[in-house]
Amino acid sequence: MIATILNRQLDQLFQDAASEGLLPSPLPSYKLTRPDNPEHGDWAINVALVAAKSVGRPPRDLASDLAERISNLDGIARVDVAGPGFLNLFLEPTFAGRVFCDHFLPWLDNGAAIQPERRQRIHIEYVSANPTGPLHVGHGRGAAVGDSLARLLRRAGHDVTREYYVNDAGRQMQMLGNSLWIRLRQQHGEDVELPEDAYQGAYLIDIAAQMLGTLEDPAAFFAQPEAAQLEQCREYAEQAILSGIREDLALFRVEYDQWFSERQLHHSGAVDAAIERLRDAGATREEDGALWFDADRYGDEKPRVLVRDNGEPTYFAADVAYHLNKLERGFDQMIDLWGADHHGYEPRVRAALRACGIGDEQLEVHFIQFVTLVRSGEKVQMSTRSGKFDTLADVIAETGTDAARFFYLLRRPESHLEFDLDLARRQANENPVFYVQYAHARVCSLDRKAQEAGLTLSTFAAEHLSEPADRDLLQVLLEWPDRLRRAADQRAPHQIVFYLQDIAAAFHGYYNKQRIVDATPTEVAAARLALARAVRSVIADGLDLIGVHAPETM
RNA sequence: GCGCCCGUAGCUCAGCAGGAUAGAGCAGCGGACUUCUAAUCCGCAGGUCGGAGGUUCGAAUCCUCCCGGGCGCGCCA
Predict the structure, then answer these.
(1) ipTM of the complex
(2) Which residues in chain A, range 509-528, keep a C-beta under 7 Å from any nucleic strand B atom?
């Protein structure tokens, strides 16, 4: 917020300077940054360095001409020309406090809204795991990132729809039905082996037992033609697994506006229509009995099959239809979150959209790297094939939703994540979740103390928040709107977690340095309490964005 | 072989629309509780930013090559 206010003034000043010929026109893009060396002031501007060449003057000369003008701006105590030509700004001690009182508090009171540069209708799709087994720890990461990103985009002022694409068509589902059928027959006393390519997971044994219990007349069931038995098994397995997935996600506070069925897409004729659209675009051809999309003409490395030689459309064909469907529903931005193992799939989807004349920028694909679980200091080996893996439900049961969601966002999505279960479970200071939550609880505690003491917020002014400790905390606090906007623009919910750790650290430091409720005079106490409450409000806001609770006591 | 991601402190990782002396947490060491919650704070130590070139006034950040790790290259989904 300080940066925004300074930038507004600086832009005007530099425009004026440009029209006088002191700076080039148009103005080159310059940066207002926080130097890491305090001797370099509160803020630094590199405008003289980037403009020097086109004006034909040494950067330091140019800087000193600008320094005088800048020093007259509101809130600026002093301007130094330093190094190769940086302009170092020193703020008046009361400036941050003034921004807090005049801008930040009113902003908070009015709902703390963020205005996007351009409000978009965004469709975001995440997890979309095949309903062939329970969600595992890898899906958990996609769930945490996707749900948090959706919250973040909504918070940043966009119109967001969250969707789970249910892959309920195709051979995997046949295989699932078949696997359940075998399990069912086994439990019915038949001596049959589970084929090697079947789903081996123990969860199907439970589902088989369940299903057997619902059959009024098992003998009659097994007397039906095989196809009918298989169809009922597929149906039962899908429903059972999908409802398990829904439960896990609900427990993980991961929400959706819509569950979108792939089978529905086929039935509605949308897949055929998509294939027709590609054909009309002249982007397809028939070969070896199959229908191919010439993806290589649109940026992919080779042609891709749309319709198999047996007449069945591929998963890819359905996916093209799905993306076209999203656009038909009026979204102007699609965000897909995929597991990193699907990155090779992106070019063909893009190619198809291009062939349909759809702009590349309408689809964003973000990849979520893998998760390695660490338990008792050792990496836990996973294998989906054999059905030996840790489920998301296991992790939630072990650590709780708060810790798990926080941990999943502790790294950038494109980095491999080592998820240390022992650390996440530990109720101690090494655990970063508690660090942030504790800061929130601390302010709540202060608030209770203030109420006991009858402290009111009525009378305080910016001057009461001008000590170095105040300014340090204000600096981080006032960054919130910018950091929030930046995290949304970059589709990076993990940056919210980083900010939360920054603001919590700043507050804990402040707490240890300054008396708050019992500070004297009362005006100072009131000012500090207002500051602490603003910190609480921001922490609660940030935690809510990542789906983590903000406790009032700990 | 080709493509994508990653390589930064002992460990796990930020920083990468170029900016001045590269940061955090954990682990290690030393301090701070008769005081609003010590699940906290303060200090110390810790680095050829995988390597080599290049662009630039300036490179962890951009470009090229190389090395290491992961993943992908199905008429599977």
Answers:
(1) 0.93
(2) 509, 511-518
CATH superfamily for A98-114+429-545 is: Isoleucyl-tRNA Synthetase; Domain 1 (1.10.730.10)
Confidence of residue A423 (pLDDT cuts 50, 70, 90): confident
pLDDT of the residue at A38: 80
What's the pLDDT tens digit per position in A118-172? 899 999 999 999 999 999 999 999 999 999 999 999 999 999 999 999 999 988 8
The rounded distance, in Å, linking the Cα atoms of A448 and A445 is 5
Using a 7 Å CB cutoff, list residues 356-375 of A near strand B.
367, 369-370
Q: Identify the CA nearest to A364 among candidates A105, A75, A540, A149.
A: A149
By the 10 Å C-beta count (0-12 exposed, 13-18 middle, 19+ buried), A373 is classed as buried
pLDDT, tens only, A291-336 = 999 999 998 989 999 999 999 999 999 999 999 999 999 999 999 9
C-beta within 7 A of nucleic chain B, residues 154-213 of A? 167, 169-172
pLDDT at A26: 81
Q: Which tokens go with A267? A: 């039935």
Average pLDDT over residues A335-354: 93
SS3 state of residue A398: helix
**Alpha carbon separation from A457 to A378, A424, A507, A525, A530 (Å, rounded):** 52, 38, 19, 9, 7
- Dihedral of the alpha carbons of A539, A540, A546, A548, in degrees to the nearest 10: 110
Q: A459 vs A101, A456, A468, CA distance in Å?
A: 12, 8, 21
Are A497 and A483 spatial neighbours (Cβ–Cβ below 8 Å)? no
Q: Are A79 and A71 in contact (CB under 8 A)?
A: yes
Q: Phi and psi (nearest 5°) for A452?
A: -60, -40
What token pair was written down for A136? Answer: 């595992």
A35 strand B contact, CB < 7 Å: yes
Nucleotide nearest to A528 (CA to C1'): B36
Residue A372: predicted pLDDT: 87
CB half-sphere exposure, A132, CA atoms < 13 A = 21
Contact at 8 Å (CB) between A34 and A42?
yes
Q: Match domain A2-92 to its CATH number in 3.40.50.300, 3.30.1360.70, 3.30.540.10, 3.30.70.100.
A: 3.30.1360.70
Order of all β-strands in the sheet with A333-339? A258-261, A159-166, A121-125, A333-339, A363-368
How confident is the model over A59-106, as pLDDT tens digits? 899 999 999 999 999 999 999 998 888 999 999 999 999 999 999 999
Q: Which residues pair with A313 in a beta bridge?
A: A307
- Determine the residue type at A124: I
**Per-domain boundaries in chain A:** 2-92, 98-114+429-545, 171-251
CA A313 to each of CA A203, A259, A316, A319, A380: distance values in angstroms, whole numbers, following the listed order: 30, 22, 8, 10, 38
Q: Which amino acid type is present at position A455?
A: L
For A472, the token pair is 């340090």
